[in-house]
TrEMBL record:
<dbReference type="InterPro" id="IPR003477">
    <property type="entry name" value="PemK-like"/>
</dbReference>
<dbReference type="InterPro" id="IPR011067">
    <property type="entry name" value="Plasmid_toxin/cell-grow_inhib"/>
</dbReference>
<dbReference type="Pfam" id="PF02452">
    <property type="entry name" value="PemK_toxin"/>
</dbReference>
<protein>
    <recommendedName>
        <fullName>PemK-like protein</fullName>
    </recommendedName>
</protein>
<dbReference type="GO" id="GO:0003677">
    <property type="term" value="F:DNA binding"/>
</dbReference>
Length: 115
């Protein structure tokens, strides 16, 4: 699970009425490999959704379906919803976003926290 990998995160124990998905959902790994290495128990991810209503224009990246990402429809990486998740909640896949999509997601995250 390296930056750009699409993983499946198990959020099935979400708090009621928290707005969390409360199901298994895809996400893109965005954390630096040297910080979120094999021995560290967490990954930094952004959720993927097919719901355009969840997007904030300046903080979401459109991900069209490709053979590499295994998406069946247009998805959106929600950069505004970056989060750290325990690796025990994560299942690896062979899917990936492009280098350009990963860069766009990371650039948006950086802009979200600029002072």
């Amino acid at each position: 699970m390296t930056p750009g990998s699409i993983v499946v995160v198990d959020w099935r124990d979400a708090l009621p009425e928290s707005g969390e998905p409360s199901k298994q959902r895809p996400a893109v790994v965005v954390g630096r490999g040297d910080l979120f290495h094999g021995d560290f128990g967490y990954l930094l991810v952004v959720p993927l959704t097919g719901d355009a209503a969840m997007c904030i224009a300046e903080a979401s990246v459109e991900v069209p379906p490709t053979r590499e990402n295994y998406c069946s429809k247009r998805c959106y990486a929600l950069s505004w919803n970056v989060q750290s998740v325990p690796k025990r909640r994560v299942r690896a896949t062979e899917a990936r976003v492009t280098a350009a999509e990963l860069k766009a997601i990371r650039d948006q995250i950086a802009r979200l926290v600029e002072r």
